[in-house]
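User: Before I run my own analysis I want an independent prediction to cross-check against. Here's the chain; please return only the structure tokens and, at the end, one sentence I can use as a sanity check.
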Amino acid sequence: MHMPIKKYFQEEFGEAPSFIAHAPGRLEFIGNHLDYNGGPVLGAAIDRYVTVAISARKDDKIVLVSEAQSIKVETSLGEIAPMCGDTSWGNYPLGMLKVMRDAGMNVPHGFNLAVANDLPIGAGLSSSAAIELATGYALATLYKFAIDKKSIAILGRAAENTFVGMPCGILDQGCSSFGQAGALVLIDCTSNTFSTKPMPDGTHFWVFNTQKKHALIDSFYATRNKECMESTEILRRKNPNLANLAAATEAMLEYSKTELGPDRYKRALHVVRETARVKDTIAALDSGDIKRVGKNLTASHESSRDLFENSCAELDFLVADVTKMPGVYGARLSGGGFGGAIMALTDGSFSESAAAKLVADYAAKFGNSPTIFHTKTGDGAGLL
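Assistant: Structure tokens:
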């Protein structure tokens, strides 16, 4: 944040905000692309946040400003529609307004809203879900609309799916909503149930952001989603009671391999094996076997690279390099892929100097340096 949110709001709108809310970014711990396939996923809210400040207007206008975006967004209550180009960042708060109105929130007047962000954009840490949830809490407070952790996560996903146009699952919003310092968030994406799993003491997250932005809407994300949905339909021809792709077995895939074709087969195989890895990781966490957890993280990356094909040379290099270093349990891409960041799970011996060596190795190969941040689990979204 370049300046305190209250000061930024005051400078932009000439008054103090009525309410301030924030929501954390998240790390996808393990369960890559399982959320929209009905699988179990483990994630963590981190201690980096998007913060929003809001106040009521007397007219029906909506004015949005962001420290990270030079373009102000202005519209009115009667003209809520997706934005394009430089104003498209406004789709996240506007999408929340739309789905919350659809859910019954009474909005008799417009509002001013300012956004501040200490999350890197496009790094696979889901700044988009954080904007949605922080906005959701601010709007709910301003308009006296009842919400809880689960409902705001579901509304945030609806905003992303229907207004922004990203076919994501519930992972990002669920972690941002249910996050808890010292714990991972476990989401059953078939039943939309949320729980937490304690993180082992002495473990650390190191995030290396390639700064290769993964503009997911314009990338292969929608293609992967489509391939998974098509795979599920093909498998149901021989397994009519199949709930979703995460519930499939490798035997089912082999039986329908010809109909699936090579690409859909690989996507489905990743989903089936990743589901098994998440379940094994939960068991390893319960027994305190952190080395097994780390091996699963690295195996998850290899599956994303080889089967789901949503990695890239930069991410692969970082994972291969960091997993050779002392104190590293495992590493993997975190998020949608196609760029963004990797997450390394380490013990306390992994240091800034080790991270700097990784950056130097990367720069020698790619000509630019990834950004580093050492982070920990954080608490979920809410009012400040």
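Sanity check: The radius of gyration is 21 Å.
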